[in-house]
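Lecture notes, part 5. Sequence design as translation. It can be helpful to think of inverse folding as translation between two languages: the language of shapes and the language of residues. The source text, in structure tokens, appears below.
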């Protein structure tokens, strides 16, 4: 992880990292990548794709929609730009 990769990530994510935070962020990202590299060492060949450490599988909750008509309005009020119930964002395709 170096400054060039960090700059590319900033551009792709449309985020700006303050100059005084760059070294700290680089260190954190490097630690994350090192952890992921450690995970590659795990032998998962003999595990089924549906393997779970929970007996009986993953507990599920009932999937109920939340139908509060005020929620979209409140969310859009906090958007930098919105029109006709949609977010307006800059084009990202170059």
């Amino acid at each position: 992880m170096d400054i060039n990769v960090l700059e590319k990530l900033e551009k792709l994510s449309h985020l700006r990292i303050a100059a005084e935070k760059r070294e700290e962020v680089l260190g954190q990202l490097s630690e994350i990548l090192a952890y992921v590299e450690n995970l590659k060492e795990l032998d998962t060949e003999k595990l089924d794709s549906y393997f779970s450490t929970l007996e009986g599988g993953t507990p599920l909750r009932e999937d109920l929609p939340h139908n509060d008509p005020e929620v979209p309005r409140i969310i859009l009020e906090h958007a930098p730009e919105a029109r006709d119930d949609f977010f307006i964002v800059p084009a990202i395709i170059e």
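The translated text above is only one of many valid answers, since several sequences can fold into similar shapes. The chain has a mean pLDDT of 87.
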